[in-house]
Design goal:
Layout: E1 3-12, E2 15-27, E3 31-35, H1 40-43, H2 45-55, E4 66-73, H3 85-96, E5 106-108, E6 111-112, E7 118-119, H4 124-133, E8 138-142, H5 146-149, E9 156-160, H6 163-171, H7 202-214, E10 218-221, H8 228-235, H9 244-257, E11 270-271, H10 279-283, H11 293-296, E12 301-304, H12 312-316, H13 319-324, E13 326-331, E14 334-339, E15 343-348, H14 367-375, H15 379-384, E16 387-390, H16 396-399, H17 408-425, H18 445-458, H19 462-478, H20 486-494
Parallel strand pairs: 3-4, 5-8, 8-9, 10-15, 10-16, 11-12, 12-15
Antiparallel strand pairs: 1-2, 2-4, 6-7, 13-14
Helix pairs in contact: 2-3, 7-17, 7-19, 18-20, 19-20
Length: 500
């Protein structure tokens, strides 16, 4: 037999694609070519698979006097990475007649070392999920990736350590035991601070509870050292665990990005990029678009500490993901649509020196510097943040005082109760209720008059009006009130940004 065809797969722009590997052998002076728009890593596979086949006990392709052509189809999709190695090696051995195997329903994934060992790959979960959708019944891949792949039901996962082991399995000499379904274990939260560790700041804690319950974006502002960063880090411990569907989605993103440290991510992710981050690292980009921090924070929290220190271009790039909960990136090499459904927590000082309006301290910022500092946050970004909360200086006697009864676990219970109320009302958490479905929020006539009068006096935009209504609905849910009452509206209005 001089021809063979097997199947592999790759991820491109967070989506999986099945790749057909075809091998043709013909007589002639030795030549070895890989076609189908391969990148450098794919082209270098000629040396890896030749050495691996040799160490598996077969004649190296480089020692044979024949013309070898390996085609990766479809040809118009650029092939990237080394995880086609295993499929190309098996396809060559089948074409050579060294092994006999019906590979129609089998997918091969894995990078080969020169000694024939199989190295782990990225993006296993989305690749296996896509393979199942396409009707494949068996996946042969690196042993390290098998637990992650076994999260997908209804498909055989065979984890192998070497090319030799796979050949023995194909020949029936030594079968590989299928990977058992991975037992889902709750992953440890990235929470490093319990909310009870923050002394005082009852108003800020109340605001965080509301933000977590409704998924609202929140900004914490105040002098340095008042606990803004601690509160933000504590907030991740207030959020509910991810549903299984959300866990698979988040895990797929981290797997493709090469950041996966456990088989399944079950806790909401927390991302805190440094203020020197570029806009492409934040929202995604590159010649071939890749996900940024907003996508890595999907279904979790994006924390931007020292918000005005970020470049204005970077902050303005957040407009689309904050509004659409996704980001669309277009480049010459392609366009990408990345999910970005996150909760934004921002922290900032009132001015460059941090002492503006601080009790007992003098601000040394000039009026021009003050305006420049505040002007870095544009009006559209301010309008997209639901809640603005002042975190003022705490009296010293409260700093070491802990409230063990109102710890993160207790707050999380309140958040879960509010989220359950929202779930019964519709398919959206309060911050994601579409404008056309605002009638779901149920506000009584008297409270609506209070809201309308305040909106007119404060000259609220349409977006701000809806955000106040959504925050008020979350407050009502926490209070277990069927309708939004006037006190809920008034509290929600307190969280709008004040003009200094």
């Amino acid at each position: 037999m001089n021809f063979a065809k097997v199947h592999s797969a790759q991820t491109y722009l967070l989506k999986a694609h099945i790749i057909d590997i075809e091998v043709d052998l013909s007589r002639g002076i030795h030549a070895f070519s890989i076609v189908g728009l391969p990148d450098k890593a794919v082209e270098e596979a000629r040396d890896r698979i030749s050495a691996a086949i040799k160490h598996a006990g077969f004649t190296s392709p480089k020692q044979s006097n024949q013309k070898i052509v390996i085609s990766l189809a479809p040809a118009h999709v650029r092939k990237e990475g080394a995880h086609f190695d295993l499929g190309m090696a098996i396809a060559y051995l089948i074409a050579k007649g060294e092994v006999v195997y019906n590979s129609e329903k089998t997918l091969f994934l894995g990078e080969l070392a020169l000694d024939g060992k199989i190295r782990n790959i990225r993006g296993t979960l989305p690749l296996v999920a896509h393979a199942k959708q396409k009707g494949f019944t068996t996946i042969i891949l690196p042993k390290e990736n098998a637990p992650e792949a076994a999260l997908i039901d209804g498909i055989f996962i065979l984890g192998a350590e070497s090319l030799t082991q796979i050949i023995l399995h194909i020949n029936g000499a030594e079968k590989i035991v299928p990977q058992e379904k991975t037992i889902l274990k709750k992953t440890a939260s990235v929470q490093t601070v319990d909310i009870s560790e923050v002394g005082g700041q009852d108003i800020a804690k109340r605001a965080l509870l509301i933000a977590a319950a409704g998924g609202h974006n929140i900004a914490l502002w105040g002098p340095p050292g008042t606990g803004k960063t601690m509160l933000a880090k504590a907030c991740i411990g207030l959020l509910p665990d991810l549903s299984f569907e959300d866990s698979l989605e988040v895990t797929s993103i981290y797997s493709i990005a090469g950041l996966l440290k456990e088989p399944l991510i079950t806790s909401a992710p927390f991302r805190a990029p440094h203020h020197t981050a570029s806009y492409s690292s934040l929202v995604g980009g590159g010649t071939v678009p890749k996900p940024g921090e907003v996508t890595l924070a999907h279904k979790g929290v994006l924390f931007l500490d020292e918000l005005p220190e970020f470049d204005t271009k970077v902050l303005d790039a957040l407009r689309e993901p904050l509004e659409e909960h996704a980001v669309s990136i277009s480049r010459v090499r392609g366009s990408a649509y990345f999910p970005a459904d996150f909760m934004l927590i921002a922290a900032m000082n009132p001015c460059s020196c941090g002492n503006y309006n601080a009790t007992g301290k003098t601000c040394i910022c000039s009026p021009a510097n003050l305006e420049r500092y505040r002007g870095k946050i544009s009006g559209p970004i301010v309008d997209r943040i639901d809640m603005w909360v002042e975190v003022s200086k705490v009296h010293y006697e409260k700093i070491l005082r802990k409230n063990e009864t109102h710890n993160s676990q207790k707050y999380k219970e309140w958040v879960l109760e509010a989220r359950n109320i929202q779930k019964k009302r519709g398919d959206f958490i309060n911050s994601r209720v579409p404008s056309k479905n605002m009638d779901l929020l149920k506000i009584d006539t008297g409270s609506l008059k209070v809201l309308n009068k305040a909106a007119e006096r404060l000259d609220l935009s349409g977006r701000s009006y809806h955000k106040v209504l959504r925050v008020a609905r979350t407050i009502a849910d926490i209070e277990k009130s069927e309708n939004i009452l006037s006190q809920h509206v008034l509290e929600a209005l307190q969280y709008r940004k004040k003009q200094n």
